[in-house]
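Researcher: Batch entry, complex prediction.
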Amino acid sequence: MEKTLPMPLAATAKKINMNKLAKHTLHYLVLTLLAVITVYPFWWTLVTALSTSGDVFTYPPRMWPENPGLDNFIEVFKTIDVIAFYKNSIIISVLTVAGTLLVCSMAAYPLARMQFPGRNIVFGAILATMILPSEVNFLVNFITVSKLGMGDTYTGVVLPGLAGAVGIFLMKQAFEAVPNDLVDAARVDGATEWQIFWHIMLPLARPALAALTILTLVAAWNQYIWPSIVMASPDKFPLSVGVLYLSGAFSFKIRVVAAGAVLTVLPILMVFLFTQRYFLRGFDGAVK
Amino acid sequence: MSASKKNTLQAWLFLTPALLLLMAFSFWPVGFGSYLAFTQYNLIDAPVWVGLDNFRELFEDELFISALQNSALYLLVVPAIQVLAILLAVLVNNQLPGIKFYRAAYYLPVVTTVSVIGVIWNFMYTDDGALNAVLRWLHVINEPIGWLSDDRIALFSVMFVTIWRGLGWYMVLYLAGLQSVPQDVYEAAVLDGANAWQRFWKITVPLLMPTILLCSVMSMLAAVKCFEEVQIMTKGGPMQSTYTALFYAYEFGIKSLNFGRALAASLVMSVFCVALAWLNFRYLQPRKK
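Model: Structure tokens for the complex:
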């Protein structure tokens, strides 16, 4: 097409293309530089975990594994009870997700679809938990959990986090979008509130349940401070706590610690890669 | 039982589990915690009322004062993280090939547990670690820097990790903000001859103001309450130079079971946080037309 244009116009078009190219190259250069800063520490850890010979720390830093192999990973399994850590992480995550879905959607249903005295007070109270200085709650919650005999138990780790304002509001929004006709028809047929909740609301709120599942799953798998406070015996540690146990006790075995770190993040990074849209689309509505 | 009474009862039954949990683990800590701040309590014996003693001891403790100063200093991460996050959001707010890969790459630290982040950055920061190696290779330094062993810079090294792991989170929030800016405003500005720089300052920033306000408050509160990174990477050292206020509360509460002192410290922090949030909304609120 360019060739058919009169000369000056063709030159301008070409200049614009060149400008665009230069701009895009610069754009990608900056993008890549920033990506190196966020990704390289992970890459270094993976490379170190896969290397089976040579120095751990090299100058300049290593880019590729030396004699790649899985020896260090096998060593992790011999050094600490990783299977137990995995089991604990899975139990804590599954209980947290199941509990959060149930508790939050149950609380959301009457707030979204029922009229009853005290509704606004409840709504305000749940809203208020969002501005409470919750990061310092762990001190008193540790006392509460200990006094209730839930120290060093999965229940103690899971229970305090189940009811969250974000989860309740997410589910409330989903329930509000369910058409009235469906609910009215069910009521005419004599359905109880529980049946409406269980057989109509929950199936129709599946996208919101999926979002809440993924966000809760990643948060539960990654939580560190709270399980490290509640769990006293190492055989009950989730991976996030176990990996520090490994790095504390075997800090001289850097490759093995690196392999332990890889084993800890691998499952959740897989989940992230397949569910990116839930994280990266920017929580529509949550911000506004 | 009348229909409406039955309805009310049912509604409250649905709400019961959530309300009980919120009562026990969100409201109780605020009330009981504030009370314990005025007592001596070690988890075993009953709390003993001591009035303001905990606060007096707190402010006579040089470690707490320096921990408070460190928490205030920690606010330096806020402008850094916000400027970088806006930059990232602007850079990835397009449909260029491969842009999804970059978004995921920036978000990677956000979905990584903080304990692994601590382990990884301890590797990066050691004397012969990757960071010193790269800087020597670029001839920026001759001698390795003790990122976590030098008490003058350890706190800043920990702060950098906080920035590094938080960037992706704020990038996503800004991305949502950017995508709600109507495209025709930019088109009109281009027609009027505004360059990219002018468009950024005259259109993007003002329209992004609500998001900037929200993110600043979030990251300020997170910054002054930061202690996980400290607990994992430095345990407050070297020479107690990386103590933050909440790490102090953690050490006195969870480690020494001195809950009175710990909760007094966290009460001071909470007051500080409320004041910060209030100042933000008071002075950063976009002016009403």
